[in-house]
Amino acid sequence: MTVMPEKKTENEEDAKAWREIKPEDVKKTILAKYPAKVARKRSKHFVINKKKDEQNYEEIQANVRTIPGIISQRGCCYAGCKGVVMGPTRDIINLTHGPIGCGFYSWLTRRNQTDPSTTPDGHNFMTYCFSTDMQDEEVIFGGEKKLAQAIQEAYDIFKPKMISVFSTCPIGLIGDDIHAVTRKMQEKLGITIFGFSCEGYKGVSQSAGHHVANNGLFKHVIGQDDTVGEGKYRVNLLGEYNIGGDEFIIDEIFEKCGIKIVSTFSGNSSVDHFRNSHTADLNLIMCHRSINYVADMMEEKYGIPWMKVNFLGAKATSASLRKIAQYYGDQELIDRVEAVIAEEMVAVEKAQADVRPRLEGKLAMMFVGGSRAHHYQELFSEMGMQTIAAGYEFAHRDDYEGRHVLPTIRVDADSRNIEELTVEKDPERYNPRIPEEELKAEERHGIKLKEYEGMMADMEEGFTYAIDDISQYETEKMIEIYKPAIFCAGIKEKYMVQKHGMPMKQLHSYDSGGPYAVYKGAINFYYEIDRMINSKVWGHIRAPWEESPELTAMYADE
Amino acid sequence: MFGGGANLKLAVSNIIKQYQPALIGVGTTCLSETIGDDVPLILREYILKNHDPEGPAVVSVSTPSYSGTHIDGFHGAIRATVDALAKKENPDAGGINLFPGMLSPADYRHYKEILSDFGARYQMLPDYSQTLDGPMWTEYQKIPAGGTPIKEIVAMGDASGSIELGRVLAKTKSAGKLLADKFAIPCHSIGLPIGIKETDLFFDRISAITGKPMPEKYVQERSRLIDAYADGHKYVFEARAVVYGEEDLVIGMASFLSEIGVVPALCASGGKSGHLKAMLRDVIDDFDAKGITVMEGVDFVEIGEAAKKAHADFFIGNSKGYKIAREMKKPLIRIGFPIHDRMGGARIVHIGYRGAQQLFDCITNTIIQCRQDASPIGYTYM
């Protein structure tokens, strides 16, 4: 039997070795494997994080088509609409109009949690998978009749408040008019019923589906109920999907501070909350990519300002809470927020001090989502870890470079396929929550509104990478070259990474873990990462680079 | 709008450059099928234009989600691969072609062990025993090791017999039948070897093809299994089970349950071959006397409703049945695929005497545990 060398659990003495590696060489080596045309294209997505002038980072290409034959992380338009935005809703019947595969594989796979006890009817349909189960004959003769039947059947059994229908690839191609069917059924049944044209082939990734979902919610649901609920500071939390219970503990902290969540979009949400979300004072955006459309439209129509927040990482949580308090400018709230922060930080600082000696200087890579790869860097840096490379599956340039690049983003045919709603002020309900000048200046009490600086601004310059729509091949090369202590992505990457003999953390579904938001979640995350990286199981494995340590040297010398 | 030909050709070319595979499989989707892409034609064009004799084999199969179930895609891919690659090159080569059915990687390892113990030459397709449940890598692998070697798929045309497992599969245009038609290789269509009866049949066919008796190791395993049946039957007899999943898995499992005295009170599948009931009658000798309910083409809501009427004691099937089992407060014994709420689905052995032994222990212990937990006293002897 071979005696395995003991794996070091203390900081490796070569913790800084990665700084010897020249990113330009790495990029060249990786892209060299591609055919010239592919390499040219991928080169624009594979960016070394550097400022090109005072304001701007290197331009990164994003939200364009994946090259065929490249193993991509991306999902489809239907996944973004049905899975991401609408999936976490509990009391809407989300009915997939299409063959069974689309519904089956998006059936409660995302670990979005919910608490039905917060709505009087207690409706929860999340554990069901609703599909019209299209067969060959319906693809030939049309599936509208079957759709109407399915809606009727779902209504008869569950008596839901709302049914939404999701169109899949074959539906768009055969030309079923889901909007006509849903309109007719809405009239017949007297509940809200509408369709999403989120056929899988639309757009270039799930991002298109987010936009379609935002449009649908805005057109058909938001604003249906004008009842103003209780609470002095009433906010909506957008782009928070309650994976592993994140929303639950954000809500807990908000309650401590005296802030009331009117509606979350869409983790732990209810259609009741969506319907009167336009009565809130302020929209807070967690995941910028998936939901900024709704925030923009609510501002236009109802006069609700929005600001970017982040509740992943203790520091970011405190900053976000302070931002909210400052926005209201109410001393009572400001003091209460400070008291909560002070109280919560005691345990956080203790946990940080505990894990840091075991994690300091270790490398992390994360390729996930359209905001998560940015947010989670906060948590890693609080453990003393360095994010060496990060990127998104479906983000746009503004998510990387910041919203100031919005005017310079070229809209291509794939994006033009997705409807842009024209929104006007609601003649009765438009009510600017802050003076018009502040709305226009996008600033209140020194707090910038509608602002997001993007991921790149938070990453170290010169040594780190922003890689858009990373391929499996590039992933494997980056792992081989940098040997990070942990790699974060989704289920599709999980086994490939683990086979390298290193820990892999899923940041879509959180594996079996969570919550990771706010303070309690941060502590939870520190300890989980500590246990993963320093687990004894790795002592039984020799990673490839431990067998051939010359790998590092090779890149350093080139 | 303009067809997917250009995309597909570009993808094939990029895959070849990055991975240099020996074979590329192309499955179609709803999208390419509905727009009417002629995938075999596009691929032929690609191959003709790039005429590279060293290039990978390309196999395509029609798999739109709206046709049949996942099991049709599974067997369709095997048939398409055999059709594209198998040749008659060396008629004296002999050997057994094994088409193992959709089971766990551990089952596949067990199949291979059995055939090796017979000293038989064999080709098994597919073989994901390594690729879906493989060891930790010691070096970077662009394409994970394992799987059926292409030369073995080619050699399937030379075999002296094929064994395909699945009683419903037997009624379809399977890879085994294709080899029988093309190269006159006798095809033995039997059920999945789950439980003693169906496993006996499997060993019997291997013996028939190889002319060798069952190796002593399996004689022992079989005998120990019967010993365990004798020991444990009193715990399980007349217990009522709901079995669900792919039709062939349901048939195999129901056959096994019935031989240990459990009543497979409800046998249900999303598949709708039209053969399920007749096949169950074939494998369960007292089928009519037991009042077994059979449902084809059903979903979990329908299974749940029927399960209540069937007075089930436990459910046996994949993770997707959790919701209905939970509603009835009955245990779910996880078998088949997918198992995503427990560890080790890839390591469950369903087949052979060994698989029956593990299943038997698991079912018996589940029933004992239920009785133990239900008792207010806390007895340690049940």
Mean of residue pLDDT of chain A? 93
Radius of gyration of chain A: 24 Å
Largest sheet: number of strands, sense, barrel closure of chain A: 6 strands, mixed
Mean pLDDT across residues of chain B: 96
Strand order of the largest sheet of chain B: 9-8-7-10-11
Topology-level CATH name of the domain at 232-374 in chain B: Rossmann fold
Biggest sheet layout of chain B: 5 strands, parallel
End-to-end distance of chain B = 68 Å
CATH architecture term of the domain at 1-62 and 356-402 and 454-558 in chain A = 3-Layer(aba) Sandwich
Counting helices, strands and paired strands, the structural category of chain B is alpha/beta
CATH homology group of the domain at 1-62 and 356-402 and 454-558 in chain A: Nitrogenase molybdenum iron protein domain
Number of strands of chain B: 11
Secondary structure: helix percent of chain B: 40-55%
The overall strand count of chain A is 16
Q: Show unreliable segments of chain B.
A: none
